[in-house]
Every structure is written in C-alpha cells, then in structure tokens.
Amino acid sequence: MKLPTWSSLALLSLLPSACLAHSQHTSNWAVLVSTSRFWFNYRHLANVLSMYRTVKRLGIPDSQIILMLSDDVACNPRNTFPGTVYNNADRAIDLYGDNIEVDYRGYEVTVENFIRLLTDRVPPDTPRSKRLLTDDRSNIFIYMTGHGGNEFLKFQDAEEISAFDIADAFQQMFEKKRYNEMLFMIDTCQANTMYSKFYSPNILATGSSELDQSSYSHHADNDVGVAVIDRYTYFNLEYLETHVKNASSKHTLADLFSSYDPVKIASTPGIRTDLFRRDLSEVLITDFLGNVQNVEVDGDGMILDEDLLALARSAGYNITEQEWKDAMTGGYHEKTQEERDTVVGEQRTWEGPARVHKDRDGDFWRNVMSAGAVGVCFVGYWVFSMIDKV
Amino acid sequence: MALRVPVNLRKNLSVVLYAFQGLSFLAVIVGLASLLLLPLDEYSRRTYISENALLPGQVHAYFGGSEQNIVRAFRREVDLLGNSTSDVVAERMAEIFRSAGLKVGKQRYSYKAAGGEYTGENVYAVLHAPRGDATEAIVLCAPWRNIDHLLNEGGVALTLALSRYFKRWSLWSKDIIFLISSDARAGPQAWVDAYHDLHGKNIQSLSVKSGAIQGVVVVDYPGAYHRFESLHIIYDGINGQLPNLDLINTAVQISRDQMGLRTDLQEMWNHDDGYRHRLRTMLRGMVNQALGHSTGPHSSFIPYHIDAITLATHGDGGWHDEGSLGRTVESVFRSLNNLLEHFHQSFFFYLLMAPKRFVSIGTYLPAAMLLAVGLTLTAIRLWVDPRSRSGEEKKEEEKSEKVKEGGVVAVDGGPKRELFLPMSIVIGVHFCGVIPFAVFNSVDYKSMSSVFYIFIAASVILPTLISILITLTASPHRLLPAFHLSRCFSLLFLGMFLSTLATLNFSLSFLIGLFSLPLTFARTTPDSVPLALVNSILLQLTSPFAALFVVAGYWGLGVEDILKEASFGWWVWGMWTPVVVWCVWWPAWVVGRVSVDSSIVMAVMGKRGS
C-alpha cells in the first residue's frame, strides 16, 4: 500500500527534469539594445529601459542582461527632471531610478561590439559583464530599438547593421552552440525586414512594422518635451505589465502576439515562426523574458531524494532508507531516462535549417542551362570570327 | 565634316544671328514666366521641419500668470526711461539684469556714415546654462528703439521678464544672452562684430562673452498698448542672406499651431494664400533681398552665419498680449535649446510666399539665370555678327594658304576684329564705376541730393561725350565694329556677373537683369536716328537712377535718404549692393548708351562707318 505512494512521489520528483527535457533551457539571457543617440531619441532609451525593467522584474539577473545604450538622456542638460527617464507622461515609474547596470554605454554601442558580443569574439580582457556567456541550453531574448530602414538599423548616426549581418551572427551563434532558443524583438521603422534574412534554427522573431511602414511614437511628455515611448513597445509592455505578473505566469507567446492590434500600434507587427520548432501556444513568455525556474540536478539526484525523504518523514510516513532507495531505483526512473535519451537523439538527428537553394534537381537543370549558355556564346564567337574572315 | 557646317554657315550668317536673337528672346520670356509660375501649388512647396532635434511646440510653455505682472512692471520702468540718454538706460538695464543674478556687460559704439554719427550703448546679460558646457549660446534681443525709431516698450520689458524667468529653469543646454541694443540698426551690428572680435576702433570690446551663437530671436513689441493681432516674422539679412528656413518654420509652427497666433510675412497683413497674395509676398521679399539692407536687428547676425529672426507684433485690435508673446518666445527657445548642431538641415536659399509655402533655389534659380543667359546670348550674337569685324577683306589666296599651313580649316577666317578700342571703352567705363561709389559713400547727407543730381547730369552726358570722342578719333570703318564689340563685351561681362550673383543674391541679380533687358536690343543704328532716340529714352528710363527713384517711391522716401541708407549700409553693415550697382550695372548701362548715342553722333557727323 505504501510503495505505490512512494512510486508516485518519486515520479513527482522526476517531473521537473521531465519538463526540463522538454523546454531544453537552463538559463535565460537578455540583450537589450538602443541604437540611437541624442536627446530627441529619448523614446528609444525609454523603450529599452522599459524592457530592461520587465526582464529584471521577471527574474533575469543583471549578470545575465546585456544593456547597450547611448545613455545620454538621463543626465542631458535638456532633461527637465535630471537623472530620470520615464516611459509615460504620467511619470509614475522612473526607469533610471536605481539599480541600472549599463554594460555598453555611449560610443561603445557599435555594430562591431554588438556582433562581437553575440558571437563571443571579444578581446580576452573583456569583463564578464560585457560578455554573453551563454551555451546551448540558454534562451536569449534580444530586443533592439532605434532608427531603421529596409533591412538595416542605424547605430548612433554613424553606421548601420544590416539584416544579413544579424542573420550571419545568429548562424555563428548556432554553430558555436551559443543558444537553445532565441526571441528576437525589434521596434524600428520597417522592423520586420530586419529578421527576414534569418536562417538559423530555433529563432522566433517579431517586429513592429512591415516594409515601407514607419513605427510611431505613442505619446509625448509635454514637460520633458519629447516623445517618451514607441507604440509597439508600449503595447507589448501593457500586456506584460497587466498579464505577466510574475515569473510563474503561464501566459504564452501566442497570447502576447494575439494581443497585438495593428490599429493601436499604427503599423503591422510581424511574427516569424518558421525557424521555431515549438507551437507558440506552448511557449511561455517567461521562457524568454523571465528567468528559468527549473533546476537541473546533477548526478543521480540523491540530494533531492534525501530532501524528499526528509519531507516524507516529516509528513508522518514511517519509512526506512532501504525502502526509499528501492523506490528510487524502480522501473519508472529507467523509463524516463530512456525517454530523455530519445528526445536528445531526436535533436541530434535534426537536419538543420531550411535553406533556400536546396533543390538538387533544380541545381542540375540550372547547371545544364548555364553550360548551354556558355556553348551558345562559344558558337556565336566562332560564327562571327568566320564571318569576319570571309 | 563637323567643321564644314560653320564654314558654310558663315557665308549666310543671318540664320545664326536670327537663331541667337530668338534664343535670347526666348530665354528672357521663359525666365520671366517661370518667376510668375512660382506661386502656383505645382511649383512651390509646403514648409516642413527638417531638423529632427527641434521638436517645435512639443513643450508646455509656462510663461504667464504672475509673470505678466512683472512684464507690466518693467514696461513702466521702460516708459519712465523713454527719453533718457543711452548711458542712463544702459545703467538701469544693467542694474535690473544684475538683480536677476546675471553677468552683465555694456558696450559703447560709434559709427560715422554719410556725415552723421551713430552712437549708443548696448547692454547685455549672460545666463550661464546651469548644466550646459558653455560652448554655445542663444540670444534674445530687444532693441531699445525699433527700426521705426519707436520705443520698444513691450520688447524690452518682455526680455527683462524672460531673463528672470529663464534663470529659474535648469534645462538649458546653451547659455542665453539677453541683449538690449541701443537701436535696431547700428547697435546689433556693433555688438555682433565685437562678439567675434571684428569691431572697429570706435566700438568697445565686450567684457563678457559666451560660446558660439546658434540662434537669435529679436522681440519687437513697441507702444504702450498691450494687445496685438498677429506676429510679423522678419527674416531678411544683410546682402540678401537669409536665416535657415527651419528657424522660420519653427517660429511659424509654434505661433500658429501651439499659440494660435497668426503669422505674417513681408507686411502682408491679410494673406489669403491665393496666387496674388503669394506673388506679392514673394516680390516684397525679393525687393528686400535685392536691396540687401537691414530689416531689423536680426539682419546683422546673419552674415556671421547665425540664424536670426525678428518677431514683431502687429495691430492692436487682437486678443494676444505679453503672455502669448512670452510663451511663443519661451517655446522657440526650448526648441533652439534642443538643437544639437548648428542649423544646417533646411534651406538657406529660398523665397517665402506664405508663412507655410516656399520655393527653394533649385526651382527659382532658372528665372534669374535665364535673364543672364539672354544677355550672354546677345553678347555671343554680337561677336558672331560680321558687323563686328573691321579691316579689309583678305584675298582668297592668302586664305587658302593659311588653310594649308594650318593643316586644318581655319574656323575664324575673314576680316579680323579690332579688340583694343572696344576693350578699353568697357574696361575704362568699369573703372569709372568706382567714382560714383566712392563719392556717394563719402558725401555728407546734406549735400547728398545735389551731388546726386550733378551725377545724373554727368552720366546723361558722359555716354554722348564718349561716343563723340570715339567718332572723332577713330577711322570710319572701325567705328561701327568698335561700338558693336564694346556692347558685346559689356553684355558678356554683365551676363556672367549676373549668373554668378544669382546664386548668392537671386533677387538682386533678377532685378538688375530685368532693368538691363533694353540693353539686349538697344543697338547702334546709324541708319535710323528716330529709333536711336527711342532706344536712348528707353535706356534712360531703365537706368540705375531710375531704379533708385523707383525704390525711393516704393519706400516713400527721398532719393537722398536711399543714398544715405546705402552709405550707412556700406560703412556699418558691409552692404555690397552699392558696389554691384555702381561698378557693374552702371558701367554696363553707360556702354549701352554709348552705342545707342553713337548712332545719333555718327548720323550728325556724317560718318556712316564702313
């Protein structure tokens, strides 16, 4: 009578690791970038600081957040409220208040630094706070905002990053096993063009506006004298603030994306899911914006087992060490271990990203046609040289 | 093959000559017509803010309420000082600025022009930006007496009140300089010259300075009455230079959209945005630009590449008062404060035809250019014209020999052109242009009008004298070609000069081009004395003096006042308009009249030329 109870308890203890096997990540990282400079781009700074606040609120520690911003707004002499950045005219939350860790500041926000950060090709003396120390079990949330155009994003009026640059950087990250899954969110003009070139797996991307569409600011603060937040970010935040109350929230990305209203945002937000394997309705928002709540246990799980044993004893079950060990080494455990292996195996046999020119038959005919074209040129050359001689 | 055509054509040049004449005529007509097309919607554009940093009208302006009482108190203060000497005024103003906690400087200046002396004392205060880096500054200026010599009660009082008000804000990124200039014409010039250490010896250096000036707003709010109807934005600078269009757009957008204050340009008080009003606004602007004079204290700043405008109140029946004007100035200053770099995004060359309508240089430039092209084409036609050649026809053998020697067909065959005489006429007359320029810039105001009439008489006689002299001395067959060629060189020079000038001061170039149009057809006609007489009268009617009378009539002033203004402009502002008129236009006109008068002289003397 008692043993089945033990077995169910043991099963319960394995549940977290089973979940782990499913969502595949053991750490969460966030890279938040405001590529703009200057006072009149206040809103981009506010956008990125709002996102910073959100991911911190949902548990990602500063050590796992890379914050890149020009940081020339809070202490700008033009700021009516020195040392503050607000994202709303009601000035309820000072985003710059305390506990801000800016990792890349001012002129350090460059395309080169951004790509070096992503691909971890940094000088050896780079401090940990400026490195993205992720592995193949890390979920990364990348948020970018600034002034963009068709397939480019300006960095501080000095240079720009193209959609191809980011796509290639992501592929390198994939090859270097630097992420498990990635959420790419971008709020610029023509933002959706920025993720159109991605080709690496497990990337989910969303942007604020289509090709030839501008992203607009939401409202201005008439005392600060500038627009304080962009629409897309504003409505993302509104959802996150009202629905995702804490890190254990069960809201999914499908919920977040379905909350987007093109009329309110004044542009058509885009979502790209073709590189992503999971169904969005199963992907928690906190998989990316929150810190991982699950803990993977090293070894045979004895410490946890002992904790559970103590828990069981304190609950009034009279149980010996031997009985407990028997329950622990039961068939359930082996079975789940196998299951986990198969899942890992599945991932290994995965064929890689869907590429564009993969059609072998098409390649063959294309080769034939190009050979034919060369032949025609050759014949033409011969004919004309004959005519010339005649 | 290519060379055969002109050689053949030379045998029958009339086709080429008519073609040039036609083209020249066409260029002038198209040039004039294109100017008249500009006010249409299809050719002009709506103004827009080009500089992202400006963010006009995005801030609440808080000037008002009790601040208004302070303005009224200062008004009383200004009123009491109304007739005091400038040093008393400067001392009192300095006291007020000091009590507001600002650094104060004073500057005496003295200019001499047209026999008059212009003295005064400027006073100014510097508000250091509390969190700024003191490398840049913006200026709020109020002349003690405005350009019409009215006591600028409201403007000065508002500046004093705003200096106290701005001091309370901590958001300035640039220093703010409050300048109360002694008058609207010489004072600001003395101050801005001294600010850049380019002042003469009768002008004091400034004791307090700040960073590079990024923008200037002048408040012109004369009279004791508080209320006003609309805001008149004055923007013309010295020598027809203009402030960046963004500054005007900012002022227009803030006063219209944020403050609900009507804005006027070029004294067009009832602008209906129709074709006629747009055209009139544009033409009035062009006259101001062509004259190149100062239209307010802001004008002196513009040659230093400092963008400046004057906000003048107009009318006294409206419902706006110090509060509205103060808030407008406050909001404009918040926008200027937002600037990150010097104004550079928008246009510096434009014609405004309504507060929110303009044409840029690319659209309007062809008008003046085509007039200049008309002159140049006429000059080329005169060069090609066989009548410009003198000397005997060379023998056919010589010609063919020359061809053989050269190995190619000599394009310029036929009799040679005698260049010495026409060249010396044109160059000599252009040198003579220095005389009126020097005389009018050194003569006393009192004797100005008598000197002017003597000069008119002299320049009416001068061309006739020159043509008589040449007709008497030169050999008959060289006469006609000499007059032809001198006209040719003179027109060529005028055409080149005007097309260059068009890129700097479009309006001046266009107006001179317009007045010079008779020069394209008033030619030497020894066969027809009546035609020569008509041409001579026509030239007289479009002479620089006639233009001077037109301008005098336009402003309702005497000719001597215009000349005094020109002299003052040259000595105080560095205005180049007199140079252009006396050294370029007047010589071209004299040469034109020489060639017309020569036909009468030749007819009378019986020398018909070759």
UniProtKB/TrEMBL annotation, chain A:
Gene Ontology cellular component? GPI-anchor transamidase complex
Superkingdom classification of source: Eukaryota
Q: Would you kindly state one Gene Ontology biological process term found in this protein's UniProt entry?
A: proteolysis
User: What range does the record give for the signal peptide?
Assistant: 1-21
The catalytic residues are 147, 189 (nucleophile)
Annotated GO MF terms: GPI-anchor transamidase activity
Stored InterPro entries: GPI_transamidase, Peptidase_C13
Coiled coil, from the record: none
What does the similarity note say?
Belongs to the peptidase C13 family.
What name does UniProt use for this protein? Glycosylphosphatidylinositol anchor biosynthesis
Q: Which organism is it from?
A: Arthrobotrys conoides
Per the record, the gene is: GPI8
Automatic annotation (TrEMBL), chain B:
Does the record's keyword annotation contain Transmembrane? yes
Membrane-spanning ranges: 15-38, 361-384, 419-439, 451-472, 492-517, 529-556, 568-592
Give the matching SUPFAM superfamilies: Zn-dependent exopeptidases
Q: Which domain of life is it from?
A: Eukaryota
Q: Which terms are listed as keywords in the entry?
A: Membrane, Transmembrane, Transmembrane helix
Q: Report the GO terms under cellular component.
A: GPI-anchor transamidase complex
What protein does this entry describe? Glycosyl phosphatidyl inositol protein transamidase complex subunit
Gene symbol?
GAA1
